[in-house]
Amino acid sequence: MEEQTSLRDVPAVAAGVSVAGARTTATRGPLAVTAESCFRIASLTKVFTSTALVRTLRDKGVPLGTPVVELLPGLAPDWRADESLTIEQILGQVSGLSESVDAATVMALGDGDGALLEAARLVVRAGNEREPGERWSYYNGNYILAGSILAALSGTTFESALKGDLLDRWGLARTGFETSTASVTGWNGTTELPLLGYPRTRRPSGGLWSSVPELLAVGEGLLADQALLEEISRPRTRSGDPMAYGLGWALGRSGQMYLNGRLPGYRAAMVLVPDRDYVSVALANQQTALPALARLLSDMQQPLTGDDIANVVNDFAA
Asked: Is the pTM above the cut of 0.90?
């Protein structure tokens, strides 16, 4: 961290690494934080949504190849998407859905318990622009559907399903959608940003707060469940796609799993190297910090893989 000169103006940075379950964490910056402080993790939320849904499907004996419309039958009257679209394809960002439903549109649906399903209705009503499986394209609408499926399978809201199916099971008491005394404020340049809520319709794709130890615990949990890990890390993309991608994770050339997250005032990045039992994560509360976080995580894993992955971690589409 000290070698990353571009981190020196970041108010708060927290990072950690776990190798075979042995953890090291560190913080830096003028704002007093600890490794347990909570940052917005933005699109790292997709790891939680994907993991919880794959686990729930496994527990209930529902194949990943099940068509989405079968699990969300209430959307059938408005369904204009390809009826063969599967759970696996939405988690793998190869759905081919028309990417016409934006953040403002789903935010306008409000924060009621039924808002997420109504957002999913808009997503499938927009139809497909290409056949499912044909090409990878990063679209948060896929995870609106994934969150709706998780809620439907659990018979509750998405937030309650995520808490019961993953957060509580893995002892992640500090990870959630609400701010707390441990929440770190974000910064844009020299401007401190207010702590704001996050719309429920977008939560499956990017709403969580979490900390370095709890993100390391998620990585450790994946590494400990070989069947789950193999399912999530298997590529769902084709050779001509912009990147290799599994279920919620981009995939590196030496088996790395990586992604980043971006929200106003926050940047986050995470890397797994499964065959080395290795997890690393870095969080910052400054909008300009992502290239430095990507460089930090790349330098940490490079002795294990020989790969410089700073650019791909920074350029990931989150």
From this structure: yes
- Tell me the C-alpha distance between 317 and 298, whole Å: 17
Strand 13-19 to 278-284 pairing = antiparallel
pLDDT of residue 4: 86
Segments making up each domain of the chain, as ranges: 5-315
Return the ∠ at Cα 97 (arms to 66 and 199), rounded to 5°: 95
CATH of 5-315, one of 3.40.710.10, 2.30.30.760, 3.30.70.2970, 3.40.50.1820: 3.40.710.10
Tokens 């190869």, located at residue? 94
Looking at residue 54, what is its pLDDT?
98
The C-alpha angle 182, 194, 316, rounded to 5 degrees, equals 80
- The Cα 104–Cα 309 span in angstroms is 33
Q: Across the 318 residues of the chain, what is the mean pLDDT of every consecutive 10-residue run?
A: 89 98 96 95 98 97 98 98 98 98 96 97 98 97 98 98 96 95 94 94 97 98 97 96 97 97 97 98 96 97 98 90
Place of tokens 């799993």: 257
- ∠ Cα 24 26 30 (to 5°): 175
In the block, tokens 């709890």 appear at 214
Using an 8 Å Cβ cutoff, are 29 and 10 in contact? Answer: yes
CA distances from 284 to 31, 262, 266, 270, 297 (A): 11, 10, 6, 12, 13
Record the tokens describing residue 195, joined without a space: 């702590």
> Quick one: which of 60, 72, 16 has its CA closest to 271?
16
Whole-angstrom distance, CA of residue 45 vs CA of residue 167: 12
Q: Which residue has the tokens 């989150």?
A: 318
The predicted pLDDT at position 318 comes to 63
